[in-house]
Every structure is written in structure tokens, then in C-alpha cells.
Model the fold of this input.
Amino acid sequence: MAEVDTRPEALVAEAAEEARFLSETQSQELALAKTNTEVAAPVEKKVKKIIRRKKRPARPQVDPSTFSSEPPPQTGNIFNIWYNKWSGGDREDKYLSQTHAKGRCNVADDSGYTRADNVPGSYFCLFFARGICPKGQDCEYLHRLPTIHDIFQPNVDVFGRDKFSDYRDDMGGVGSFGRQNRTIYVGRIHVTDDIEEIVARHFAEWGQVERIRCLNTRGVAFITYSNEANAQFAKEAMAHQSLDHNEILNVRWATADPNPMAQKREARRIEEQAAEAIRRALPAEFIAEIEGKDPEARKRRKIESSYGLEGYEAPDEVHFARGKNAVNPRGREGYELEHEQRLMLEAAGYGGEEQRQQREPEKDGIFSSSTLATLQAARVAVASKPKAAASSGPLVAYDSDSD
Done:
């Protein structure tokens, strides 16, 4: 029989060894469970968080308490109460235009969202362009610069004002809907050596400028914008303003440039604009085939236009021709059986001349021969009214209404 050590030191050592064994076993089980949990747990996808900056509200350009609505300056002879403006005069008084504008728009600080941003097709604020809008974010019109996506009807401008059929004598006012004018005339510029740099710096604030032409000795500049809406906005924003000196600008619409090069450039721009509109309307595959960007379409066209002849490729005027004499079989569809149908109609007329007339239509008219024959048979001869005998006497010239 084995002896058991019952001393206190032996019991304590045995308990410590058992505790150490249990702790190691539990740690291994926890590690294994943790590993299984980590393997079984689904991997969380990393979501890229997009932080968008909130649009700031438009600020009032002037204090509403100090803003007062004044009647427009007299530029005509008759005041129209319906349109709240003067009419009857086509030239602005040169003395009234010698006063500075009451404010100036600062696009970087004054732009922001208004109530009009929630309404599609809203117009731009005229007072915002002039720098005197007191409403801020409560305004019913847009407080920002026009873009190429802001498209309005050709008979109104970006401020919602109706255009006219022709320009005024002084080329002021809203403008005409008969011509797309993107060029404004600026006069009374202080003559300096760096006039071109000054004009470009001030007028580039209102949109993308396409071309600037300055007459240094006369203090005159012509600014052409890429978008007509920006030209309309710049005309109102820079009216009666100053550049780097204390001058008062005279801003008007520019007349048509008589330079042949300018006319060709404008015609080319209109053609490019029309081509871009057509390119957007047609399918992309069709555009690629026309422009030769699709190699497969080019190969198909080369095979189809060869017509079985090795090394031959028909030109466009032959390949796309239409008619009974067309080389392309698709171009002869609907034309190749005209003469055969006519021969069949003539050969089928065994019943006499009347049946042949009923079957064969007229070549030069819209009615058949049978219809014309019926109309001729139903024609009724109307007897003409006999003329009254010429009367003689002192009252021969006073005829009655019945006669």
C-alpha cells in the first residue's frame, strides 16, 4: 500500500500545481475560442464617408432698413405704370448716366442659396447683379453667376425681362431676341498703359471671357463672353461702375462686327454648336460610325461598299444614293418595281378602255382617270345671267347694289 504524503507543505504544492494546470487549460480554451470567433466573424467593409460642405445662405448686400425703392430715372417721355419704366425715348440721358452706381456685387462674398434654388427655371436677381439686394436668402431669385446649364427662352434675358425685336438706338436696355449677342461695349475707360490688363481683371469676374479688344487711345473695350447669359449679367453688374480709377463706365451692347474674319468665326461657332447638339441627340454607335472611330463599322462599310469587287470601295454619294438606278440594293427598295407594276397594269386591262382607266392612275395628278371621268360627267352647266341693257339718262352713274 502506497503511502500518501499528508504534510502541509506537500498539500500546498499539490494545490498550486493543480491551479496552474487549470489556468493553462482555461487560457488555451479561451485563445482557441477567440481564434474561432475571429475566423467566423464577418469582415466589416470599409465605407468611404463623403463629407459635403453645406451651402451657405446668401447674405443681404445692403441694410434692409436703409434700402428704399425709388422710381427709375426718366429715360423717356411717358411713364408706363404696368412695367414701371419710362417709354418713348430710345436714348439714355448723358447727364443722368454721370452718377456712380449705388453698389457693386462681390460674387465671392455675396453668392449663396436662396428660395429660388428650390424652384426649377428661376431667374437671376437684378438687384444682386447691381449689388443692392436687401433680402439675402429670402430673395425669390438666384444669387450666383449664370452657367452653361442655365438655359432660358430666347425672348427673355437671365433676369426674366422681355427682349425686343430690335436694339435701341443707343444699344442699351435689355437687347434683341433676333441675334445672340455675347459682346458688350465699354466706354469712358481711363486711358493708361495697362488698360488691357485692368479690363481683363475686372470683367473676368462675371464669367469666362473669350476675347477682349481694347482701343487704348480712345478708352474703349469690347468684351466677348463664352456664354450669352454671362454677358447679360456683366452688362448690369458693370453699368456706372469704376475700374481702378474714378471713371464712370458706359456699358452697352456691341453692334455686329463687320470684320469678315469675325463673321466667319461666329458662323463656325454656330455650326459647332449645332453639331454638338446633333451629336448629343444621336446614338453613340451611330456617331462613332460616322466619325470613323468604330473600326468594326469601318470594316463593315468597306465590305458592303465593295459590291463583290475586290479592292473597290464606293464613295459616299454612290453608297448612300437612293432611286431605281442606285448601286446599293438598299437604295433601290421601293423604286425597282415601278415600271414593272405599270406594265402589269397595262397588260391586265383586257376589259376595254374604261377598265384600263379605272386601274391606271394619272402620272401628273392626285386623282385617277375614273375619278376625273366621274367628275366630268357630274359637271352641271350653269346658265349665265344675261346682262342688263345699258340705261341712259342723267342718273346713269348711280347703279344699285343689286346690280
